[in-house]
User: Fold this.
Amino acid sequence: MNKTILSAAVTVAILVAGGAFAVARANKPTDSEAGPPARPVLTVTVAEPVLRELPLTLAANGSVAAWQEAVIGAEVSGLRLAEVKVQVGDAVQKGTVLAVFADETVQAEVAQARASLAEAEASVADARLNAQRASQVAGSGAMSEQQVAQYLTAAKTAEAKLQAAKAQLEAQRLRQRQTRVLASDSGVISSRSATLGAVATPGQELFRLIRQNRLEWRAEVTSADLARLQPGVAAMVTVAGFGELAGTIRTVAPTVDAQSRNALVYVDLPGAAQRGFRPGMFARGEFRLGSSPALSVPQDSLSLRDGFSYVFRLGEQTGDRARVSQIKVEPGRRLNDQVEIVAGVQAGDRLVAAGAAFLADGDSVKIVATGQSGASAAMAERPVPIQAGRVAR
Assistant:
């Protein structure tokens, strides 16, 4: 009997407790009915995506190189290099003497050629006189026709020897001029292999010259991007430590590398050498391909978390309070403090303008009039006690 009474009492107690829980649950407002918490996480301003013109660019990497590099070599053989007048880095003008070979041997050969020429001229004079006399007595019987022909032939032979002597003298004079190594164009000496006292051979490289000290950027682009580039397109090239420099595409390579599937684009860089650029430097750059409309938001609206970009969209506003929802977005082009949003938001969305790094999905915020500084507003009115954990998160 006592067990029955006890069991009934327990059952009644459970039913009473269950009823009380149901009544309390029924009286509790749902999330949709409940307003924002009384204490907001941040005070924020509102930003809306704006459709604006943003530049179209194509980024590329490459190297700074000489526009053309002239190889200056020896044109004589068997002569000793007697003097080297320039060093690497020297600026020279076209025709500047870069090096001098010892020309004593050549001078002697020039003198010998002159003597041979004088001898040939004397022989020509004598042969011409004999031929003239033979022509005068021809037909008189004083000299046979064969003898007359011999004198005329001797005169022609002497003329030929005279021309050969002149050519020999000119060759020796040319060799004498070649003992002075001259710059083939204006520019800067980029390499020197000439060694004082060495005996050069014809064609041996002595110097390299950056023609007109003119540099270019050789950018590598994929074959898929080649169709977007053509001569005349503007580019902005950046070398670390030397800043930016504007350039223009001169030409696009007619072939694509079979291994990398990349092609070279040659960009003229006026004044690059004066800015301190040097051949071989690594450079980044962008080709300017015009502009197109894009939906953009302020840079401060974005929050980078775990390698992804997010914005916080404001929900239904009650008074000056609203809850935020975290939205994953895909950023695109950038212009100053504006960032293109490729996907994730639409025109008309109300976003938190700044302070996204301090927010989490579902937080309550206080909204102030648009136009206040988002950064200062975001840092103001943060409830100190309850936000310590939130900021760390």
User: Anything to note?
Assistant: The CA atoms of residues 49 and 346 lie 7 Å apart. The chain has four domains: 42-54+293-392, 58-67+213-291, 70-102+179-212, 103-178. The two ends are 60 Å apart (CA to CA).
